[in-house]
Amino acid sequence: MEGTSTKGGVLSLLSLLEVQARSRRHVPPQRSRVKELRAEAEALRVRREQLKTEIQTHQSLQRLRTSLDRQSTHDEEEEEEEEEEMDEDSENSQLLKLMARHTRVKDLLLAHHLIGGYDIVKTRHGKGVCVSVATAYEGVCLETYNLEMDLKPTLRICRHNVPPFVPLSSLAEQGDMQTDIRAFLETLSQHLNAFAGRKQQLKLVKEQHKTIEVMESNALCSILVLMFTVPKTKTAILCTLNYSDHTACLPARVQFECDVKEILESTEWRKNCSLLMETPLHKALMTMKKMGNIV
After folding, report:
1. Which residue among 68, 84, 113 closes a domain?
2. Where is the composition biased (Acidic residues) (predicted)?
């Protein structure tokens, strides 16, 4: 009997201890909870101070950005009044000015990207803009063309130095310049860069191929007539290149004329025709010389 009661007492004690342990796991100590709340409150206070600092910095940057914008329009009096609010000798003032200039440059680069990489400058105190379209060929910068446009009442080209043979008016109408200025500038850039590329090829031909005679070329460089000489027979061949696509640097059609028809019907000269249509002119002529087809 005594053994049984002792055994029952031990089991009861173990059950009680197990219940107490479970209750301790589910109910966190009061002191730990207080520490957690204090830590959260301190973190919130730190975050509040950070937000205050960010707001003050943003407001200072906005004032400096306004000052820089006024400077770009030569409004010096307002700029001096704005800068008087800042301490010129403080490190924070200098840092904020650098940050303002940095954000302004980033905004300008973003705008430059959005308009397709064209340089645009305000004119006549914001009443107009001047757009510059640069041309290049094979990594070489060539001519730059400028268009001055009125902004009001409608967007209108008032002055430009685009060559007269480029159909500027029809391009503006086709591209709907009023609603999509970027599309118009892209089309114009294609025409100008293709013209610059054809013109540059003609220049390189004259410089690099002295034995080839340029018989004819027009202002647009869309028609080009060359005189070749076959080395073996000393036969003259007239080559006409027609660049009917004015947005391309390669000819759409190549025609040979020669008194000896057998030469033009040969496989070599058929290949030469394809070469001239697929390769820049000065490079195609260099290949034809290396192959021994022309002098």
Report:
1. 113
2. 75-91
Q: What is the pTM of this model?
A: 0.63
State the average pLDDT for the chain.
Answer: 82
As for how many domains the chain has, the answer is 3
Q: ∠29-33-37 over CA atoms, to 5°? A: 170
The stretch 71-88 carries a mean pLDDT of: 48
For residue range 183-195, what is the model confidence (pLDDT) as tens digits?
888 899 999 999 9
Tokens of 231: 């080395």
Contact yes or no for 168/160 (Cβ under 8 A): yes
pLDDT, tens only, 94-146? 776 777 777 766 666 555 555 556 777 878 777 888 989 989 999 899 999 99
Domain span holding position 164: 119-195
End of a domain among 168, 195, 222?
195
* Residue 20 domain flag: no
Q: What number of residues does the chain have?
A: 295
Domain-located, residue 24: no
Q: Output the CA–CA distances (angstroms, integers) from residue 111 to 121, 154, 182, 284, in the order listed.
A: 12, 21, 12, 40
CA nearest 149: which of 177, 174, 107, 176? Answer: 177
Does any domain span residue 262? Answer: yes
